[in-house]
C-alpha cells in the first residue's frame, strides 16, 4: 500500500480503485462518495485544497445575539444605560454593534428583568399571604376564637415571621378578615349539620319528659331540666333549646287557642257587620236630610245616588243583612216617623257634577305645586339607568331616617320599562310620606352629576305640560339633590349652579318648542340645613332666568328643631325681598306649623296644609289671604288625609270657605296621575266647574313674580273656556 493510501486510510475516508483503474473515495462515517480527492485529504497531504478557508465575518444578527447573551448574564432591574456603556467599552461582543442596537437590546433585557422582578415580588406576596393564612387558621380555628379582632391578632402574632412578611397593614387586615370569615362559615356549616339531629332529639325529649310537657312549665324550669340532662350544649343563651321549647309549647296550647280564636273572630265579624250596616243607614239618612231620599224613592234610584259611595260597596262585601233589606227597613221607618227618622244628621253634599273628562283635559290649567324630580319621564330615566348602571351606587342613605336603600341591584333587576316604573312609582298605594320619599332616592342617583340627563328631563317636562294643556307652571326642585354624592355627602357642592343651569336650559328649550310658560321654585330640604343658604343665593342669582320662589320641603322637622329653623330662616330672609316664599306645612305635621310658616318664614303660600283646618292657624292664614297648594292624590298616598270616599276630603272645606287655594299634582310620575286626574277627583268631592274656574284664577293670582300682562292674558284664556262650558 502506497504512502498516499496509508494516509487516506488513517482517516474516515477510504480510497478504492475500480476495474478500469479509476480511484474513488468513500467516507465511512458520512457515507459520502466522490471521484476527486476530498479537501480534507488534500490538506493532510500538504496539497492545496482549492477552497478559501478563511472564516466568514459575523452577520449583524449574530453580533446582536452575541451582545445580548453577554449582557443578559450580567443585567438586572437596577441597571441603567450608563452602566451598560461602561461594561460594553471593554467587551469584544460589543464591537460592531451600533449604539442604537445596544440601546434596543438593553431596553428589552431591562423590561424582561423588571417583569421577572415583579413576578418574583408577586410570588413572594402570594407565598406570604398563604403563610399568614395558615398561621391565622392554626391560631384562631377554635370556635371560641372567632370573635378575635384584627388588633388582638396583631398583638398575638406581631412577632411571627409570617405576619411580618406582609408589610402593608391594609393587606394584613384583608387577609385576616378573609380567613376569619372562612372559619366562621366553616363553623356555621358544622353547626347546621348537627342542628337537625339535635332538634329532633330535643323535640322527643320535650314531648316525653313529664316535667317538660306540662302546659304551665316556665322556660326557667325547662332550662334547669335540660341542663341536668346536658342538653344545653354549653350555649349562652341556649337559643336552639329555647326555640324548640317555645314551638312545642305553642303546639300544646294550639287547641285551647283555637277555641278562643273562633270566638274572637265571630265577635269581630259581628262588630264589622254592625259598622257596615250603621254606615249604610247613615248614608240613606244623609240623602233624606238633603231631601233626595223620600218615601217614594225606589231601590234603583238609591243605587244611582250612592253608586260611588264606599258605604254601599261595603254592604256588598258583607255576609249579614243586605243593603236592600236595610233600605226596606229605613223606608218603613221614614213612613212612620217622617223627618224624625233622620233628625240631627247632616245633609249629604250635592252629587258630583257629571263632566266629561275630555272637558277637564282641554281646560287651560295652572299648576303651582309640582316637583321636577317627581315628574321625570320614565323612559328617559330608564335609558340613562341602563347606560350608567355600573356607575350607580350600590346603596344610598336617606337624610330623614338614615336608612340604606338598595339602588344598583334593584335597577339591574328591571328587565323592561314596566318593571322600572313599578320600582320608581307608587301609583295609588297608601304608604305614608317617608316611604314615598324613599322612592325618590332609588332613582335620583341616575340623574345625580349627569347634567345632560337633567336637561333632557327638564325639556320632556315641558312636553308633558303641553300634552296636559297646562298653560302656566311653577316647578320646584332642590339643585343639591341632582349632585353626585359620596359616602360623606355631596362630592362637590359648587356644582349646584350647574344643576340650575341644566334645568334652565332644558326648560327654555321646552318653552320655546311647546309654547308653554314654566317658572322655577328652588327647594331647601328640611333635613339638610347646610344647603339652604346656597339655595337661596342661587334662587336670587337666577331670577332673570325664571326662578321666582323659594320653598322648604321634604318634611316638617324644622318647625321643632331650632338649629334647622335658624338655617332655613336665614335662607328665606335672603330671598323674601326678591322672590316668593312657600313652605310645606301641616301635611304630616300639626296644624300649628302653618302659623310658624307665616311668622318665621314669611310664607305667602302653604304646601298642603290639610291638618290646619279648624285651628287658629287656619283662620289666621285665611285672614292674611294665604294661598294653599292642595294635592288630592298625594294627600291620600302619604296618609296626610285618611278617608273612605273623596266626598270626605278636607279640600272641600277650602272651597266652601273660599280660602285661596289651587289643585296640583305634586309628583305626577310617582303617583301615576295628571292634573286632569286631580280635577276629576275634585268633581267626585262635589265641586263644580265654577269652583275649578275660581281655583285656577286664584292660582294665577298668587303666582310668584308673574308679569302683569301675562297674568291678565292667561286669566282671560281661563275665563273664556269656562264661560263656554257653563254657557255664561
UniProtKB/TrEMBL annotation:
UniProt keyword Cytoplasm, yes or no: no
UniProt keyword Chaperone, yes or no: no
GO MF annotation: an example: adenosine deaminase activity
PROSITE patterns from the UniProt entry: A_DEAMINASE, WW_DOMAIN_1, WW_DOMAIN_2
Enzyme class: hydrolase
Domain WW: 13-40
Record key words, sorted: Coiled coil, Hydrolase, Metal-binding, Purine salvage, Zinc
GO biological process, one term: negative regulation of adenosine receptor signaling pathway
Cofactor: Zn(2+)
Pfam families: A_deaminase
A Gene Ontology cellular-component term: cytosol
Pathway named in the protein's UniProt entry: Purine metabolism; purine nucleoside salvage
E.C. numbers: 3.5.4.4
Catalytic activity: adenosine + H2O + H(+) = inosine + NH4(+)
InterPro entries the record matches: A/AMP_deam_AS (IPR006650), A_deaminase_dom (IPR001365), Ado/ade_deaminase (IPR006330), Metal_Hydrolase (IPR032466), WW_dom (IPR001202), WW_dom_sf (IPR036020)
Similarity section: Belongs to the metallo-dependent hydrolases superfamily. Adenosine and AMP deaminases family.
The protein's name: Adenosine deaminase
Organism: Effrenium voratum
Amino acid at each position: 500500500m502506497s504512502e498516499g493510501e496509508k494516509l487516506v486510510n488513517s482517516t474516515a475516508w477510504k480510497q478504492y480503485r475500480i476495474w478500469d483503474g479509476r480511484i474513488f473515495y468513500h467516507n465511512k462515517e458520512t457515507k459520502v462518495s466522490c471521484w476527486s480527492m476530498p479537501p480534507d485529504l488534500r490538506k493532510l497531504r500538504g496539497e492545496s485544497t482549492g477552497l478559501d478557508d478563511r472564516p466568514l465575518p459575523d452577520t449583524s444578527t449574530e453580533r446582536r445575539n452575541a451582545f445580548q447573551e453577554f449582557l443578559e448574564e450580567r443585567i438586572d432591574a437596577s441597571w441603567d444605560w450608563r452602566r451598560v456603556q461602561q461594561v460594553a467599552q471593554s467587551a469584544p461582543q460589543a464591537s460592531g454593534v451600533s449604539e442604537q442596537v445596544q440601546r434596543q437590546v438593553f431596553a428589552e433585557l431591562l423590561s424582561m428583568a423588571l417583569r421577572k422582578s415583579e413576578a418574583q415580588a408577586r410570588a413572594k406576596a402570594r407565598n406570604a399571604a398563604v403563610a399568614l393564612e395558615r398561621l391565622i387558621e392554626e391560631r384562631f380555628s377554635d370556635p371560641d376564637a372567632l370573635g378575635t379582632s384584627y388588633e388582638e391578632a396583631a398583638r398575638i402574632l406581631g412577632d411571627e415571621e409570617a405576619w411580618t412578611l406582609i408589610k402593608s397593614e391594609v393587606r394584613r387586615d384583608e387577609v385576616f378578615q378573609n380567613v376569619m370569615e372562612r372559619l366562621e362559615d366553616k363553623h356555621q356549616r358544622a353547626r347546621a349539620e348537627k342542628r337537625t339531629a339535635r332538634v329532633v332529639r330535643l323535640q322527643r325529649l320535650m314531648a316525653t319528659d313529664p316535667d317538660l310537657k306540662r302546659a304551665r312549665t316556665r322556660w326557667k324550669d325547662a332550662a334547669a331540666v335540660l341542663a341536668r340532662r346536658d342538653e344545653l350544649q354549653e350555649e349562652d343563651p341556649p337559643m336552639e333549646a329555647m326555640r324548640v321549647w317555645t314551638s312545642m309549647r305553642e303546639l300544646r296550647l294550639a287547641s285551647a287557642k283555637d277555641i278562643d280564636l273562633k270566638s274572637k273572630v265571630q265577635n269581630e265579624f259581628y262588630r264589622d257587620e254592625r259598622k257596615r250596616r250603621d254606615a249604610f243607614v247613615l248614608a240613606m239618612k244623609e240623602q233624606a236630610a238633603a231631601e233626595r231620599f223620600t218615601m217614594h224613592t225606589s231601590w234603583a234610584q238609591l243605587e244611582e245616588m250612592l253608586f260611588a259611595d264606599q258605604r254601599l260597596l261595603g254592604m256588598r262585601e258583607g255576609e249579614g243583612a243586605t243593603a236592600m233589606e236595610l233600605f226596606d227597613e229605613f223606608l218603613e221607618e221614614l213612613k212612620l216617623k217622617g223627618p224624625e227618622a233622620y233628625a240631627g244628621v247632616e245633609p249629604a253634599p250635592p252629587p258630583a257634577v257629571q263632566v266629561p273628562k275630555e272637558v277637564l283635559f282641554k281646560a287651560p290649567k295652572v299648576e303651582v305645586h309640582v316637583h321636577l324630580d317627581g315628574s321625570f319621564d320614565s323612559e328617559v330615566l330608564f335609558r340613562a339607568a341602563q347606560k350608567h348602571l355600573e356607575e350607580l351606587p350600590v346603596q344610598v342613605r336617606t337624610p330623614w331616617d338614615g336608612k340604606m336603600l338598595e339602588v344598583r341591584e334593584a335597577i339591574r333587576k328591571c328587565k323592561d320599562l314596566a318593571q322600572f316604573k313599578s320600582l320608581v312609582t307608587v301609583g295609588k298605594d297608601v304608604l305614608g310620606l317617608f316611604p314615598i320619599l324613599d322612592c325618590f332616592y332609588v332613582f335620583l342617583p341616575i340623574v345625580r352629576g349627569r347634567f345632560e340627563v337633567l336637561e333632557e328631563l327638564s325639556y320632556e317636562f315641558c312636553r308633558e305640560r303641553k300634552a296636559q294643556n297646562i298653560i302656566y307652571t311653577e316647578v320646584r326642585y332642590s339643585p343639591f339633590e341632582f349632585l353626585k354624592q359620596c359616602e360623606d355627602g355631596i362630592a362637590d357642592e359648587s356644582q349646584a349652579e350647574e344643576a340650575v343651569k341644566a334645568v334652565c336650559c332644558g326648560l327654555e328649550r321646552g318653552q320655546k318648542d311647546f309654547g308653554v310658560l314654566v317658572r322655577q321654585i328652588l327647594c331647601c330640604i328640611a333635613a339638610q340645613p347646610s344647603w339652604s343658604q346656597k339655595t337661596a343665593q342661587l334662587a336670587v342669582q337666577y331670577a332673570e332666568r325664571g326662578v321666582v320662589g323659594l320653598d322648604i320641603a321634604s318634611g316638617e322637622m324644622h318647625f321643632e328643631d331650632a338649629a334647622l329653623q335658624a338655617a332655613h330662616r336665614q335662607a328665606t330672609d335672603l330671598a323674601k325681598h326678591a322672590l316668593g316664599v312657600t313652605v310645606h306645612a301641616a301635611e304630616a305635621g300639626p296644624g300649628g306649623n302653618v302659623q310658624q310658616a307665616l311668622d318665621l318664614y314669611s310664607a305667602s303660600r302653604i304646601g298642603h296644609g290639610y291638618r290646619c283646618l279648624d285651628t287658629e292657624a287656619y283662620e289666621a292664614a285665611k285672614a292674611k289671604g294665604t294661598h294653599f297648594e292642595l294635592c288630592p292624590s298625594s294627600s291620600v298616598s302619604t296618609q296626610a288625609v285618611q278617608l273612605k270616599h273623596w266626598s270626605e276630603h278636607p279640600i272641600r272645606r277650602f272651597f266652601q270657605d273660599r280660602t285661596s287655594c289651587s289643585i296640583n299634582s305634586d309628583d305626577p310620575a310617582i303617583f301615576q296621575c295628571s292634573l286632569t286626574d286631580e280635577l276629576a277627583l275634585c268633581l267626585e268631592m262635589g265641586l263644580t266647574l265654577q269652583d275649578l274656574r275660581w281655583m285656577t284664577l286664584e292660582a294665577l293670582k298668587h303666582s310668584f313674580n308673574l308679569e302683569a300682562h301675562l297674568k291678565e292674558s292667561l286669566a282671560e284664556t281661563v275665563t273664556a273656556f269656562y264661560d263656554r262650558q257653563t254657557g255664561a
